[in-house]
Amino acid sequence: MGELFFVFLNVVTPVFILVLIGNFIGRRLNVESRSLSKIAYYVFVPAFVFNIFSEAKIEAELASQMVIFIFVTQISVAMLGFLVGKILGRSKEVVAAFVIIATFGNVGNFGLQLIFFRFGEVSRIPSTVYFLAIVFISFVICVGAASWATSGGMQAVFSVFKTPALLALIPAMALNLSDVEVPIFLSRMSGLLGQAMIPVMLVTLGVQMNEIVKISINFNVIAASTVRLIGGPILALLLAPHFDLEGIERSTGILQAAMPCAVLASIIAIEYKLVPEFVTTTVLFSTLYSIITLTVLLTFI
Fold it and tell me: What is the model's pLDDT at position 73?
């Protein structure tokens, strides 16, 4: 019980306080989340990725195992969301929303910092590998599911390759693999910008939550949140041994699979007119619900 309280106080609480600060200033100062999220998306996130991977030391074989593992986990949890929606007899649109909620976890805002607080600097590289892989596969699955439900185009699936974080990965890996030392000015600049990523993203999440107008908690919201918060880590826990993952690579992968639904899921739902009220409400509810699930998981993982 003491360990549980320690994790809640020192690992989970600091992250949620930043979200609450964002929610407070969003209401009091009329801050718009769109401007903050754009800065994070186009500046802070790619700088963070470049800074981490330009100097990262990780075996190619291990990185491949991690990426394949998390791809399989994401596809599995997407299938679970689909099955739960179908078993409940929901409409095509709601089933697709279940898939989106199940798949797109908040692995950037929440995942990176929670894992860092729990395990320290040693977790930075593996959690970032999972972050990039999950964002990539989640966009593909979620846009595909939305297109299936609304008969929309699939062009957005290919736009994932233009994601700034993935583009920043190219020069970072080129420098890393060539053993060329990153110029000090570039390392310091990307480091400073990268350090701003997580606090800005957490505050932005609070501002975004303040912009959710209609909140209606129902069985669908609870069921979809449970698939994301409990189904995700259970599947990751079951799959990890098949990829020979141990230690920090195993723990960070399971934790990244346990994060609440990301705001990006609601953006996709709004873009495709896919029951956006349901998805945005689930983003908020799953974030609050995760206070319990993540505290428990972070304690025993």
Answer: 97
**pLDDT tens readout for residues 47-103:** 988 988 888 777 888 989 999 999 999 999 999 999 999 999 999 999 999 999 999
Give buried/exposed letters for 160-183 (b at 16+ CB in 10 A, else e): beebbbbebbeebeebbeeeeebe
Q: For residue 69, count CB atoms less than 10 angstroms from its CB and return exposed for 0-12, middle for 13-18, buried for 19 or more.
A: buried
Q: Name the β-bridge partners of 105.
A: 261
Tokens of 168: 């920043």
222: pLDDT confidence band, cut at 50, 70 and 90?
very high
Question: What 3 state SS string does the chain have?
Answer: CHHHHHHHHHHHHHHHHHHHHHHHHHHHCCCCHHHHHHHHHHHHHHHHHHHHHCCCCCCHHHHHHHHHHHHHHHHHHHHHHHHHHHHCCCCHHHHHHHHHHHHCECHHHHHHHHHHHHHCHHHHHHHHHHHHHHHHHHHHHHHHHHHHHHCCCCHHHHHHHHCHHHHHHHHHHHHHHCCCCCCHHHHHHHHHHHHHHHHHHHHHHHHHHHCCCCCCCCHHHHHHHHHHHHHHHHHHHHHHHHHCCCHHHHHHHHHHCCCCECHHHHHHHHHCCCCHHHHHHHHHHHHHHHHHHHHHHHHHC
> What values do phi and psi take at 273, rounded to 5?
55, 50
CA distance 296 to 104: 21
Residue found by looking up tokens 């189904």 in the block: 231
pLDDT recorded at residue 153: 57
